[in-house]
Amino acid sequence: MKTKQAMLDASRRNFLRVTAAGAGVVALGAIGGKDLPFARPVRATPLPNHKRLVIVNMLGGNDGLNTVIPRAAAGAVHTKYLARRPAIAIADGAGLSLTGGPNVAEWQLHPAMTSFQSMWNAGEAAIVQKVGYPGQNLSHFVSEDIWSWGARNGLTSLTGMAQGWVARYANTYANTAMGVVSIGVGRRLDFEGASTSPLLVGSLGGFNFTTDSNYSANHVLRRTKVANVLALQSATGMAGEAAAAQMASASGAAAVQAAIADYTTYATGAGIAYPTNPGTSNLTTMGSRLRDVARLIHGGFDTRVFYTGYGGFDTHSGQLGAHASLLANLDGALGVFKTDMQTMGVWNDVVVVVISEFGRRTYENGSVGTDHGHGSIVLACGGPVNGGMYGGVTSTEMDAEHLPYEFDFRDIYRELIGGHLGNDPTPLFPETQPINTIPNLI
């Protein structure tokens, strides 16, 4: 029988082991709530025939009417667009033609969206007009929550289920340490309720297992020592679970860093260069975030859903220049991302969907901007996308304060999950909807 002192000594050793483990942290994120394996091959290569969805959220409420612009061929719709937006309307002919692929003569793209136009011309881009939900709420917070829940009535419709629709997807179809990933937008409500902790990073460049940032010179030695200490811990009990979690974090961080190194070698050889801010070598916001998505895809991880985005779309004043810069930020990154995916040979397995919590009003305000509106637009691109325009705007709708909704946002989600990822979306969206018209995007 152990003496009391022996038991105290054993407890002290366990405490020291876990404390040593606690010296190692994963910067800017957490990997896995369970000791789950990281699905990555020894040699970096994208998983073949692995469907991936990349969600880009234009936070703040993107102005659909200045992203996809009615032109003179649209008749009264264009006339009313010009009349209701005298200071911020995009002049007829200044936009980009949508007749090079699916022939849509009545609409043009914002002039900043040359990459998206190229994908449109190739039949790989789609525009869904007037996306929303019943009884549109004009609060950013409420509307974002509704899109994140995937439920119009929120928690009352989700009894016994995870709050976030991405979490419900992960729990049902992608329950691995890297099944769903958030890049640059934190732990959004979309991820709440996942049975594993999703990978959450600000930027993969700073994602590492750090033993002590004050002693970077012998970081590798310290990391090895910590791993050795962790390996001595019994696998059972609270201390064992804590050690296992740290081991998983260290292993995952090492795998991510190896993937970054592999990607750098590949991208340099392939001439892949994401856009930078003018006059600097710093990547644009979306250039950095889509490059991180590409790093993980190239690294061979089993991620099914990537979630990212950027803000600034609440354009209540001075909209014209600001909106052009915001769209250029997205478009420049999308163009390189497509080239990147094609070079890897996975473009036909990737769909990028661009969402926003609501649209803007049909008319400009006194501050040369636009205020919160109802029906929004959703953009999609990728090798599997059925290119074209879904929905439209009538002359009567242009007379109203808000564009109505024609497609329910949950139907977009359903189409992406069922048509692209190949999973049954039925159990993920429990509410009965008044509109259920799947736009057949895929």
Enumerate the spans where pLDDT stays under 50 for 5 or more consecutive residues: 1-36, 241-247
Count of folded domains: 1
Order of helices and strands: HEEHEHEEHEHHEEEHHHEHEEEHEH
Known CATH architecture = 3-Layer(aba) Sandwich
Given the helix and strand composition, which structural class is it? Answer: alpha/beta
The total strand number stands at: 14
How would you sum up this structure, described in words?
There is one protein chain. The chain is α/β, with parallel strands linked by helices. The chain has a single domain (about 60-430), classed as Alkaline Phosphatase, subunit A, CATH 3.40.720. Helix content is about 35%, strand content about 15%. It contains 12 helices and 14 strands. The chain has helices at about 5-20, 65, 75-85, 115-120, 140-150, 165-175, 220-230, 235-270, 285-300, 320-345, 395-400, 410-420, and strands at about 25, 50-60, 70, 95, 105-110, 125-130, 180-185, 200, 210, 305-310, 350-355, 375-380, 390, 405-410. Strands 2, 6, 7, 8, 10, 11, 12, 13 and 14 form a 9-stranded mixed β-sheet that branches. Helix 1 runs parallel beside helix 8 (about 235-270). The longest helix has about 35 residues, at about 235-270. The chain is globular, with a radius of gyration of 24 Å. Mean pLDDT is about 85; it is low at about 1-35 and about 240-245.
Write the layout of secondary structure elements.
Elements: H1 4-22, E1 25-26, E2 52-58, H2 64-67, E3 68-70, H3 76-84, E4 96-97, E5 107-109, H4 114-121, E6 125-132, H5 140-149, H6 165-173, E7 180-183, E8 199-201, E9 209-210, H7 219-232, H8 237-270, H9 285-298, E10 305-310, H10 319-344, E11 350-355, E12 376-382, E13 388-390, H11 395-399, E14 407-408, H12 409-421
